[in-house]
Amino acid sequence: IQINGGEIPDKITFARSLLEKPISVKDLFSQNELIDVIGVTSGHGYKRCHIQMGNKEAAEEDTQGLRKVACIGAWHPSRVCFSVPRAGQFGYHHRTEVNKKVYRVGTKGDAKS
Fold it and tell me: Is the entire prediction scored with pTM above 0.70?
């Protein structure tokens, strides 16, 4: 729960008064309110570039390696560009969806729930 406004000691006493007490959803959200949802994508560990980016593996005749990207960039600029497929972390990335509207807050046993 975000506590806005007032002096810092007042905020601390208000936050301490909320500890170990049940908080209902109606206290947090109201109808037609816009909220941000923060989450994490499902993790798949360390994957090579062909699984992440979907590019094809090299032909059998290629002696340089089957599961590598053939060219990772030009001579200059002398660095690998961000858009070149590389192996690395696949999944478990932080995502934020903004401005999700709360249409209705119901209670248990309500006819419309």
Answer: no
